[in-house]
Amino acid sequence: MANQQKLQIFLIFHIYFHCLIIAQPDLLFSDCGLNGNYTQNSAYQSNLNTLLSSLSSNMDEYGFYNTSIGRNTDIVSAIVLCRGDVELQECRNCVNNTVHKLVRSCPEQKEAFGGYDDCMLQYTSRSIIGTSSNDPLLYMWDSGNASKPEEFNRELQKLVDRLRGEAANGDPLRKYATGSATDPNDQTIYALVQCTPDLSPQDCSDCLTNAYGAMATCPCNGNRCSRQIGPRCNFRYQSYRFFKQVAVQSHSPPPGRSAFAVKEDKSARIVIIIVVSTVATIILMLSTFVILMKMRKRKLMHKIQKFLQFDLSTIRAATDNFSSSNKLGEGGFGPVYKGVLSNGLEVAVKRLSVDSGQGDLEFKNEVLLVARLQHRNLVRLQGFCFDGTERLLVYEFVPNASLDQFLYDPDKRKQLNWEKRSKIIGGVAKGILYLHEDSRLRIIHRDLKASNVLLDAEMNPKISDFGMARLFTLDETQGSTTRIVGTYGYMAPEYAMHGQFSVKSDVFSFGVLVLEIISGQKNTCFRNGESVEDLLSNAWMNWREETTTNLIDPMLRGSSGMARDIMRCIHIALLCVQENISDRPTMAAVVLMLSSLSLNLPLPSGPAYYTHNDITSGISLTQEYNSRSSGPRELAKSKSISSSHNEASITELSPR
Fold first, then answer.
1. CA separation (Å) from 616 to 172, 327, 527, 645?
2. CB under 8 Å to 359, separation ≥6 — which residues?
3. pLDDT for residue 6
4. Nearest alpha-carbon partner for 335 in 352, 347, 320
5. What is the pLDDT of residues 408-453, one digit of tens each?
6. Which positions are annotated as active-site residues?
7. Where would I find the H helices in 461-527?
8. Which domains does the chain have, with CATH numbers?
């Protein structure tokens, strides 16, 4: 039984990171530590699984991340660092492989350290954040000693000392330096040194000094090729060039606190001068930062315009002057046409209506966002056109149109067996996870719905329509607005009612979408026999009464061997639409839950649902908000319907 549980743990990470075990080479180095073992199904193991599953997606662009979760005896800390010349995607692949191999190499052990040429990873049951401990320090060397070891070591030390200063005092976001020197035999020595960027310059220098000093007791002393590897710093030297050249970037480190320290014997005048000078400096720095960010955004827009902008005449020719025969559908902001460019490439052209509600800001927002997004489950932007009143977005052509055209059509829905629906659910989850965690900026879509999920020739989902998306920096968790945009039925209540949005708003929309995919019906007009009910209300009622199979599309009820998967997806969807924001899982947790049947799911609490009588295709947000203000009884009596085109609502509100 224990072996089976170990295999299940490994399979979780195998599925989550999309790696084949046979493609993963053995670890170059590893150490399992002496910090004891954890027990199966313990809180420590759960924390470890959660932490390891998110390491690669949380790393910064320089390949570094450290974090800690849990409390007391269940705390798990981890630190990852990629070599300074490794590209981010290669870095993530390396970390994913290390996670797989290290868990297998050190089963049930609370501490492990290992990696490859490109990256290293340490996890442990002790806190490592804020410390500079470089244990364990591992050695590796090749055969072949220097012919003049003393002179060789002297030249090597000069090289390492120089690089140590460059790494410690250079780029604060990537404490990394490479260089070369000539040994006594006129042969080149190539060396690399690196520290984790959270170390201070002094700690980095001390760490490298200690690592190099430890060579005196190493059998590698006097060897022509060697490396010392620790979780906080490392260095390596070879007789051949083993690193790539990295452009040196200049980053101004944050000002030190010592400028604010004032001795008690200083006069009040000096204190005032220091404080005023400091405040003025900060204001100047902030103003400069804002100006630079605006300039950077303008430069980015200019680059995008240069490489992606189409002439209006080109688009007219591709779409046969927007012929009705080429019209693919009508979106919330205008029609979409199929086009064929002069090079034969098929495209989908989104033509924004003059009165669509999407202004220049939303248009530029969508261009800036989508142009920088690269993921198999996001629609790819081919270009755009901005000419007078014409605003056009040119996307890759997706032959099977949108999910709603299959899901809500009695005939086309037959093509969506459970295997395809499951693939769509999983693909959408991975696309939203990319927006939330794997992009440099956290992106909230804010309008996730069936009509914004396109299907390619193999029925793979591609999320589209980023006109309503909002950008967060990675340390932001939520925002608010007085302009409520999106589609009724998919909006989280805290957003629809109060203008508060976060990644959990998209999680709510995803939960609604999953219930629609499983039931084959719209959230706002779910039919239960002769009556029309709210989908979330119906799902929750069936869950409580243990009659959840009533929610499943009749076309799926005969799916052999799929009942467990379908019921699990309903369970996950109900977790996503819970009223309490903090109870909803993150998309990282959702992807993990979808990937593994072995993970135990918590019980959901009540969903954020609205029970209506006589619900049709949509209710205006203004009416919904006013009804809420009158109380649930008045809401139940309300029958005044205000449908929005294509279920899209853009309503100006003043949330409480």
1. 57, 27, 11, 13
2. none
3. 45
4. 352
5. 998 999 999 999 999 999 999 999 999 988 776 678 888 899 999 9
6. 447
7. 493-498, 503-519
8. 11-124 (3.30.430.20), 138-238 (3.30.430.20), 312-396 (3.30.200.20), 403-652 (1.10.510.10)
